[in-house]
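From the shared-data thread, chain only:
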Amino acid sequence: MYTFLFGIVLLIVGYFTYGKFVEKTFGVKSERKTPAYTNSDGVDYLPMNSRKNALIQLLNIAGVGPIFGPIMGALYGPVAFLWIVLGAIFAGAVHDYLTGMISIRNRGAHLPELAGKFLGKFMKHVVNAFSILLLLLVGTVFVSAPAELLHNLMNGWGSFGIILAVIFAYYLLATLLPIDKIIGRFYPVFGLLLLISAVGVGVSLIINKAPIPELTLENFHPDGAPIFPLLFLTISCGALSGFHATQTPIISRTTESESQGRKIFYGMMIAEGVIAMIWAAAAMSLFNGSTGLNELLAAGGPAAVVSEVSTLMLGAIGGTLAILGVIILPITSGDTAFRSARMIIADYIRLPQLKVRNRLWIALPLFAASIALTQIDFTLLWRYFSWANQSTAVIALFVGAMYLYLARKNYWISLIPGVFMLMATTTYILNAPIGFRLPLNISYVLAAIISIILVSLFFYHARKTRGIGIPLDEQAETWQDAA
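Structure, as tokens:
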């Protein structure tokens, strides 16, 4: 249990120390007007207070990822704690903060726009396709997972298809309506429910003295399993997630002041790390080791683990509330996944979003594609989601590194985790069954060569761009005016 508790403490300390360092490195301008004011349109751009934005950001980024991912990552043992803590502090929170703040400096731009500006026009098109694919996968996964949990919670009462339809109907409303009508009004309440349920499970683990294993050299590689790269893709949202780069611009368009960025972007990633630690600890300690956990996962997937943990730790009533909190997680990330996809496509084709008709033209095909994807096996979807998710994180970290390089600031805070994850994602797709199926040793070598080439191209482009000189920050103007 000491590894678990020490990890929680490190996450909190990381927010007040490394988070402050990252904020100072970026250079906050509190007096600068944010897009919430300069681009105000009453739909996507409008100011909301920091407490509300922080809780919305937490729900946006914390889908089933910081729960399902750590539950499956628990099969690797306590080394999962190490990745969650170090990943959240030095990679995930840096990723979220930089994408959020750079977006604020550039009229609330989404990742494809930022990639096009800082990594070249070709990357804009690549990242646009990647982002839409990722968001479709996220939206689909976050329809299926809560529907399954609800179906189980009701003991099979009610059609699974009807539950899916109800969730899709809600997603459509949340995607189309102004952000303050549903998301801004209900998410803060849902955020509190999420935090209470997670803290409840965590406190119960401590009070009941759950046998949470300690990290040792002996269990660093459980059963000789190669933790690189699989662990770093299995646990994503609790440590580092490219999905967050698609969500932070939603809140960058509602943030009142740049000084609130550390609390909203860096802080909520740390909170997600704490949630991930709690669920990883529960999965490791309550099922007689990896054998029992494997059996439960094989029988009912991560949703079954959530139900068992919640009931064991909190009883029937408390467990039901905890399960409801977990159900809310994916729903409140799924709706913003579709909303973000709508905004990215609208920005890409320069289609104003003031009229509901324009929003429908984009939203309806997205939902049709997602409905088709629900017919695919969840496990297969999760594998593709994991790779697309972490590949997007790599791109976002390189965007952050380029911004800081051009600003002549410490770009290593973003480049180092970016290169590490570039190596991990490249190794994975070369070796994985969903990729090229190459032997692991060959995958390591090829991934290293590819990473060296891409990093060399990064520095070549960075030096060339610095020589030309481009404006890092744009004076606010609406996308409609720009079009």
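The chain has a mean pLDDT of 88.
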